[in-house]
Amino acid sequence: MDMRISPRMTEHDPSNESPQHVDPIETAILDLVRQCPADKSIDPAEAAKLAYPGDWQGRMKAVKAMAVGLARKGQISILRKGKPVDPNTFKGVYRISAPREMPLESSEDGSGSEDSPNA
Fold first, then answer.
1. What residues does each domain of the chain span?
2. Helices 44-51 and 24-35, interaxial angle, to 10°?
3. Would you give the DSSP letter of residue 26?
4. Helix, strand, coil: what percent of the chain each, to 5?
């Protein structure tokens, strides 16, 4: 029986690692939301500052992208004017909270996806 190690056997196989790589931004968002009272929300900049204290301003787009992904999975809610909005269509200033129910009608979410009948 040949016991030589082939080059394939020495290659790094990430599937054998027990803990998966977790993004520091994801960790920061989820940790801050867990620590936040149920009726409160966090500023996305707080997550950026926690994950990357020296370069948080340059990470704001990554925070938004991560927040959108987490909201799509139902792990958080993205809020505008204190109300949950569709993570796929919102624009502008937002906050992050624990998951909340989406309102049936959202005319002031800033997404521009629905017209208000009072407009």
1. 22-97
2. 130
3. H
4. 35, 10, 55
Contact 44, 94 (CB under 8 A): yes
What pLDDT, in 10s, does the model give residues 11-52? Answer: 444 444 445 778 999 999 999 999 999 899 999 999 999 999
**Cβ neighbours, 10 Å, residue 116:** 9
pLDDT in tens, 45-55: 999 999 999 99
Residue burial 32-46, b: 16+ Cβ < 10 Å; e: rest: bbeeeeeeebbebeb
CATH label, 22-97, candidates 3.90.226.10, 1.20.1250.20, 1.10.10.10, 3.40.50.2300: 1.10.10.10
Which residues have C-beta within 8 Å of that of residue 114, sequence separation ≥ 6? Answer: 105, 106, 107
Cα 86 versus chain centre, distance = 13
Helix (H) or strand (E) holding 79: strand 77-80
